[in-house]
Amino acid sequence: VIYNLYKPKNYTSFSVVRQVKKITSEKVGHSGTLDPFADGVLVIGVGKSTKKLSEIIEYDKRYKGVIKLGEKTDTKDLTGSIIKKEDIPEVKDIDLNTLAKSFIGKHMQKPPMYSARKINGVRLYKLARQNISVERNPKEIEIKDLHCSLYKKDMLSIEVECSSGTYIRVLAEEICAKIGTVGHLIELTRTKVGSFILDDSLTVEKFEEKWKS
């Protein structure tokens, strides 16, 4: 069976899988890693249904997030160290609408070093923690919908619908570059994976109740 679970902040996707495995005593997998600092929809397969995950992982996804302007971090999110600071130009919502439209469509995106992507069998974040940087091949991604608005003087809120494999942390940096500054993600929520939506997501506790009932 396929389940729509809610991954809370400060948990790895694998830790949620491990909890479900403990509850069910069956084979368990998920359909796409969510960064530990992020929360939202994590689609889980239990038992034979794990075979369906390779199809679900290719579904389009929707996210909402908050970008902190003026500060770049090594991880591209709030968990990293600040490596650069820049002034923030005056930002207006009308300019942001035009900017957002410029991202719609297909383009190439290079995965960040701090990611779960594997190169030669090693996850990139493990190399990054050793201060090792390797060449990563860019992958074609598609931004299908993007909305940006001023959240605070030094923050933007974004909503994005995108193809599988899109790194929102990288997109956030690209948005900042077009504004004329640097930035990093401080909040990220996955609100949709295909037809699986956040409003229907079960916490691990609710999943356990459902499994045992």
Give an account of the 3D structure.
One of its GO terms (biological process) is tRNA modification. GO terms for molecular function: RNA binding; tRNA pseudouridine(55) synthase activity. With 213 residues, the protein is an alpha+beta fold. The chain has 2 domains: 2-58 and 194-212, Pseudouridine synthase (2-Layer Sandwich); 61-192, Pseudouridine synthase. The chain has helices at 13-24, 53-56, 93-102, 124-128, 168-179, 204-212, and strands at residues 2-7, 28-30, 39-46, 61-69, 71-73, 82-85, 105-109, 118-119, 122-123, 139-152, 155-162, 183-193, 196-197. The strands form 3 sheets. Strands 1, 2, 3, 4, 7, 10, 11, 12 and 13 form a 9-stranded mixed sheet that branches. It has a two-stranded antiparallel ribbon with strand order 5-6. A two-stranded antiparallel ribbon has the order 8-9. Helix 1 runs parallel beside helix 6. It is globular and about 55 Å long.
